[in-house]
């Protein structure tokens, strides 16, 4: 099966850093503000969001502190000229402003970047022959502590009675065999209600992602990739029902019946 490519007539203006920052500004400006009226509103949500983004973009944990010193000494900083931050909040203020914002509020930025890549023809180089795209599913832990925790933390009780608190997220990405980079798609955060085991948590998050985002990406021609955790009939069927294909790892130790049939078939064929 082949899928249409984007023609030159359909191309939009090229993606630029300035355009991406402006889209991020619009996205952050629309964040819900949970501060009560009358509170000190020196810092806006867009300043908090752009400040946080600048740290990840520059890959420097001390970037904002250095920018604050630049403002004190030179009355201007790279955070202002590059990222358009008007007032730089401290780390605690950023957390206070952004912690209550639901992850789904960032979705417009993902849509903007993906549509820009698609409309400018960049996604064509990620297509695997004429079969569409490979979408890899995997979960990751982005916070863990035995002391610091919140109401949204997942918990794991160890044999010695200690508890580990963590936050985990499903991170779907488009990948290709000849590409060292991946294209990140909207993540799905794993919630406390998803289950007590890694399999329950990650699979339930994957089901939510498929229901929410499948219609946006599956028409492009998607083959899902995943480890043994995803290789179970209900989720495989959900992928097929959504109109996609899958390649999931299948370990003999966790799929004993399938492995037995496969081994028997191979033995008969070789005989």
TrEMBL record:
Name of this chain's protein: Transposase
Lineage: Bacteria, Pseudomonadati, Pseudomonadota, Gammaproteobacteria, Thiotrichales
